[in-house]
Sequence to fold (496 residues):
Amino acid sequence: MIEQLRGRDHAQAAVTVDLLIYTVRDDELHVLLIERGHAPFEGRPALPGGYVRTGEHLDTAALRELQEETGIDGSRLHLEQLRTYGDPDRDPRGRVITVAYLALGPDMPLAEAGTDARTAAWVPVRKILDGHIDLAFDHGVILREGLERARFQLEYTTVAAAFCTEPFTLAELRRVYEAVWGLQLDASNFRRKVTGAHGFLLPTGEHRTQEIGRPAALYRRGPAQLLSPPLLRSSDAGDPQPSLLALH
Amino acid sequence: MIEQLRGRDHAQAAVTVDLLIYTVRDDELHVLLIERGHAPFEGRPALPGGYVRTGEHLDTAALRELQEETGIDGSRLHLEQLRTYGDPDRDPRGRVITVAYLALGPDMPLAEAGTDARTAAWVPVRKILDGHIDLAFDHGVILREGLERARFQLEYTTVAAAFCTEPFTLAELRRVYEAVWGLQLDASNFRRKVTGAHGFLLPTGEHRTQEIGRPAALYRRGPAQLLSPPLLRSSDAGDPQPSLLALH
DNA sequence: CCAAAAGTGTTGGCATTACACCCATGC
DNA sequence: GCATGGGTGTAATGCCAACACTTTTGG
Fold:
């Protein structure tokens, strides 16, 4: 801030917010992508997002873009700032700095194409990680870093419940963990840990009969935000990129 | 990004980086503050930082400001992005968005006052938390959120070693944990956990005899970035603000 | 000069708890 | 077939005590 009287070589930049919205559909992790309608990267898939307006808070802009581009009400999902990307060459239009947000939510129907929202669609994350889909800008990097953050947060916080529509069963919650982490969990141990974590789950006392098997007990989210003790993925296999966790 | 042809009501903002630099001195957590030399907030303590230049990467700007304002060589410390603060009213000069960086490093001598650096000084974090010192802008918020992040990261990563000058003793490392967490640890359990964590510490085989007591074995950092298993603070006392952890 | 005390690092021993793996039962 | 619950052996942890190495104190 002190350079203001010095060189005055400070950048004026446009500021955008980009939204990385994850959900679990059919036991698989999905991300919400839109198809870009204009240059640059016209026709390419990208994360929803847009310019921050004059005098607008960053968080407000994120919620607004969420509503405008996908029709989703932000109050239903977990939203937090992920990281800011400011590579001077990341946008061919000039200096554009983007604040990326990570959103986790239950599987939701999208506003039908043809309304205000451009073609927004849930896309399996696997397809992008496998390289079958190439995202615009540096959105591929954002997606990977956000995924690492989400995997990490599932261990130490109660955000996993944000993926479920209340009330939910323990099996539904377990499938969230399995989808995000990409591994299978022992149902018995999962139950003991998750029900033992203080303030994580509130039993409703009711049960839901599914197509097959014993009826499952129903739960709602508890007040706890941090998971203690944490719910560790047993095998720290495939050592995560160190730079991506930020713990953030 | 798609709004570019719409309202064009998108903000042009100046972009700054601010540096939250923590270290452990005399078994107490300190932060590096400067005294502002100009309006606004002239004379008030603040985090070091400054404008990002045209065409400059955010990380580069952080390292440059670190060097310019404090004389510290960034290669010696752990540096990572913390969060971006974009409240439209956070700077009276106009729309200024700041990308805050969290830096952790060993106790280092500061460039003497009188050189290029303005009065930069290590300040006990306790004094700020107690409200005895009021920081400029929203730097008080940044400090608190960064502290929460640092406390969290000590549990799950090996960054604690960034506070120590190599080679270091287990007692020095333990005092880092105690200073950041503000509680006392059992030396025996600490040793067991920290030496058992794969890739955290590399024994040098040498010992250092201090002024008093038995000579302590010396260690260097190992290659591990993540701590498995994590080193949990036994009591999750004083439940941390949920929004601050980010795991970040 | 030697002996005792004090301070710090290091090692070890339980008792308790958490956990992974497996099996039994209810619907 | 799936959810639920219990049981058992292994590993991790918290607490506590003993030991090792050094300097300081004081006769």
